[in-house]
């Protein structure tokens, strides 16, 4: 397979000013007529080079240049292209192709999801629809006519505004849509189906009325209100926070059941995985409600960060994704609890992105090369990319960042640009120099930042010395120093913040400040420090690094109590838990009896006792670091020791704090009983604490707790309480209660695929022995199919990523199972196959026996026949 390099980028030889498409949709084939108004790109030089259009799986029916039909000798069709020789600098090219959406299981291009037609064109799916210059720097004005049988497809949608429609004698009808904004082909969308819609409107800051519509299959019409509310909040927030207004007269969202990712920001016609739109109390958890709000916002925000200003090439993907994730995180923080949002994001980043950065697919936020771009929609491009934007904001300040974004939008509206253009706008608006900072875009790997302190009581000075390093990653053995913004403060013996004055400064500057660490080794000295302080470092997780400071357990407990930074209070608790758990992992490995350090229990007790604390944060504090995180921070991960140590700690905490858990559980459950479901932060918080308390309580096995759990399962009016009760029962030894609950849940929700996904996931996550056999059996369930990505993620993905003790069975059966599924999916849906592979690629983390077994499965996949570029790239890089 061909490797594409950033360094080889060239401007396009030709441009497409106008794109006129007509789709004739039928059950056994579809016809696509494309009229492209084209011209030579003046920036590309002189002469008329051959025109090479992208195209894949297309059956060419006719081709005409300026109305002249072309014959076989006039053009050349290859597997992925069509080449012809233009005879003038401006011309019109007409083509007709036949495609087969009805048999498209890859869910890329035009495909069928159930009975509806829909599209997914990012990154390179448009070339499966028609011959085109399918690259983001070719931007065109689109007019699209969709024609289909009226009874089966009453709704015909595309980008922009509807400008004409009509009926034909044969039962077919058509609608023409015109998008006044030029856009790259990856933002094209089409939908045809029997859909109902929820309608609303939004008045923009300049007083324009925008029609808002969410289209769903009729049975889901009662699950759209939360997404609609989220959309209106997002539109308002983008006006307030970034001064960005929506630009078309209509904004549409369509929910589809079969979708490879969460959603897609097509201009004016967002297409969503139904799991990212549908939410109501009875069927969706609090987490699902928050996910819907975040994804609706994310896709909406792309209208400016991605659509109005787009990417020059796919190496610049983080330009739109990193910035948009940053924006959706700011939005979610504003709508809910900022500290809880930050804790969730950082936990996710440190567990999963740090693992990616340390694995065989490690790449920089702006990658240098790829085989298959779909493999680069990664945690590094999205989440680390967002952290990089966040660091720019930390360095420039909120006002400076806003000046930079204003300049970026003003300068580049309507253009396809690069990460460098983004950074340049930030620099120019602030008179800043971010040259060294840009290494965050080009160097892969997670930097380590080790910190040591020195206190001089006589001189009243306190020094912090930072040493940074970054491990080698594929293709990058040496790294240069990053600019690491370290937000920090100092606490005195009473837990008060100390005013901060650096040597050479005239006066102190607040109690939290940002140190820009930009050398391999660097010391900052504070003056006027009259007692030995305790540092609070990397407040708010101000940089995506692994920070090392030799805190004692007592110091961590002190920070948990006193740090003014909410994130760092949680972080101190996590570090304390990690230290305690790592001790126990060692004890297990040495065959010793496990001992739980009671300081952790006491630290958690004080959290639970203090009813003035934010309950969501108490729930976060009580959540021990996950097995996946403990794996990530291990040199060699001992799956069984990690599981045993963590479970032992949970048991110990459960019995020591039983009475407190019971009290808080009962109080919150009582409020839940009496309060109708509300999808708002304080209610999320109450249920979060209630549910984590229940999960600890159930470890006691006491009959009154089991009865409460069954009661919560049966009586709850919302999925958050019901699903937690189910998950807790499933992981317990109470077989009768568990089987009854699973059966009644499936019976009640058998017609709701998204709820059945949760039923599959809960069972896939059951860590008791026999997990693989249970998953294999569930694959035979009538509600399961490998053709639906949500089902694959819910059952197989959840098993391999969350049920670590079962997936990593020492006999390798878990690996064999995963490889079998990848081999089948490679043919059906390569994007899903390659994503499913991730847990096999981390073989270097495990013991020699498991390493051998995992590598053998990767080699078996490699030898299994014709591999998609998606799977080939991941497998071959993992074995390299
Ligand atoms: N920009 C969208 C990316 C996306 C995608 C990429 C590859 C294959 C399928 C896909 N579906 C959506 C989603 C987003 O980040 O908003
Ligand atoms: Zn995005």
Any overview of this molecule?
- Keywords: Aminopeptidase, Hydrolase, Metal-binding, Metalloprotease, Protease, Zinc.
- The chain has 880 residues and is an alpha+beta fold.
- Among the domains are: 288 residues, tricorn interacting facor f3 domain (Immunoglobulin-like); 231 residues, Sandwich (Immunoglobulin-like), CATH 2.60.40.
- It has an 8-stranded mixed β-sheet, with no helix packed on it. A 5-stranded mixed β-sheet has the order 17-18-19-21-20, with helices on one face. Strands 10-11-16-13 form a 4-stranded antiparallel β-sheet, with no helix packed on it.
- Helix 3 runs antiparallel to helix 4.
- The longest helix is centred in the middle third of the chain and has 34 residues.
- It is globular, with a radius of gyration of 28 Å.
- The two termini are 16 Å apart.
- 49% of the residues are buried.
- The model has no long low-confidence stretch (mean pLDDT 98).
- Bound molecules: (3S)-3-amino-4-(1H-indol-3-yl)butanoic acid (HT7) and zinc ion (ZN).
- (3S)-3-amino-4-(1H-indol-3-yl)butanoic acid binds next to strand 20 and helix 2.
- The site of (3S)-3-amino-4-(1H-indol-3-yl)butanoic acid has 15 residues, from strand 20 and helix 2.
